Amino acid sequence: MSALDEKVTWREWKYLFKLGTSKVAWGLGKIVTHKSSLKAMIAQICGMVDRDHFTSSLITLGLVDPPQSPDGEATSVKPKLSTSVNYSQLSAVESLCIPPYARESVTARHALQMLQKEHATDMIFEIIVVQESGDVVVDHTHGEPISRTDHSREVDIHLIKAHCVIIASRCDWFRRALLSGMRESIDKKITVHDTNPCLFRLFLEYLYSGHIETNEMSTEQLADMMALSDRYEVDSLKLLCEHTLKHHIDEDSALFLLSLSDQYNASALKSMALNFITEHASDILESDLFHDLPERLQAEVEENAMWPGSDCRKRSFGGHSHTQTPSSTSSVSEAEELIGSLDLAEEHDPSSSSSSEELAFMEDSDRLESCIEDLRAIVGDGVPREELTRVALAADYDANRALNFFFSA
What is the pLDDT of residue 9? Predict the structure, then answer.
């Protein structure tokens, strides 16, 4: 729009707009004049579009006669709301606008056939699989048998032919590699390590067709597919694997899936794995796999098992939950209720004193001391320190709010 403003003035724009609308009106007038000759073509267009909104617009323009009721009066066309869409029943125009499901798409099926038949391919995926093996050799020199193990690495190379345009359009990682002047774009070859050739072919079939049968895959295959989709930034496949893995959680795989979800930031899978571990904590936490988890994950699992279904931000020491501090406009009754709850907590556990030394691990001691000094300067030295500590904690170290709490109590 800014470029248009620089090239066309306001007066020129108004002239062009009036000229364009007049041309459109002239064209519609010509069609209305020859409506009888174009009636069959207009009816065919309405049948192709098959939308009541479109037909109503043509009726408004006078290109189509409104439908007649049994008594001879014209009736208006009311748009119909469809709750389900069947691709096989879509109109010829709408099929160009609304994509079908991948499993029902003719284009996806033809693209997958091109991959399977390797028709007109223009690039290669080179999957390198390294297998380590050892051979035991017995040497009888000097009359003494000497056993020696020679470690060798067997490298298997599997080639899969593909199409640059399809791969680049379906995966951003491959698009950057193939269209950004990198080595892959020159050689038309992408080397893939640390994966299974069969699994990578399934990955390519998903890129071509947008569909994969995850229900037939094992937990290990789904985990490897999730790692592959995370590596090449195919988020739709990653979410699909995450959703399927939620149904594979059991006592044997819960810790593995928890570690996997944490590694690849799969929040939904991690939450479900944590809930399952919490429900079966007595059996799972005793296993050796639990101690193989990172210390951060171990602490999270133990905390979740100790406080099932609660938020750690709402927990406090001694079994008492922190009450949300009131605002500066809190009423006197709220302040009295807050201080009363603190008194009840102290009576419940006599050993938990409110002195600053014991409360230092709960709150910032510097802010507490500063607030107590401000209160002491106003109320004097006759007030016990424990009382000032209580109101300072209740007011979240705000001296003005602490004074309100003190005098209201």
Answer: 83
- For the record, the structure tokens of 333 come out as 């009754």
Q: How far is CA 380 from the centre of its chain?
A: 57
Q: How far apart are CA 52 and CA 94, in angstroms?
A: 13
* Residue matched to tokens 């691990």: 361
What global pTM score does this model have? 0.53
Residues making up the chain, counted from first to last:
409
Contact 121, 163 (CB under 8 A): yes
Q: What is the token pair recorded at 286? A: 């005793």
Question: DSSP secondary structure string, 230-257?
Answer: HHTT-HHHHHHHHHHHGGG--TTTHHHH
Residue 192's contacts (CB-CB under 8 Å, 6 or more residues apart) are 125, 126, 127, 128, 200
Instruction: Give the integer Cα–Cα distance in Å for 212 and 21.
Output: 50
Given this model, what pLDDT does residue 96 score? Answer: 57
Contact 197, 131 (CB under 8 A): no
pLDDT at 294: 87
Which alpha helices (H) appear in 118-234, and where do they start and end? 164-170, 172-179, 183-187, 197-209, 219-231
From the number of C-beta atoms within 10 Å of its C-beta (0-12, 13-18, 19+), residue 393 rates as buried
- For the chain, the straight-line distance linking the first and the last C-alpha, in angstroms and rounded, comes to 65
Composition of the chain by helix, strand, coil, percent to 5 = 60, 10, 30
Neighbours of 383 (CB within 10 A): 14
Per DSSP bridges, beta strands 189-193 and 123-139 are parallel
Count of CB atoms within 10 A of residue 168's CB? Answer: 18
- Rounded Cα distance, 178 and 200, in Å: 18
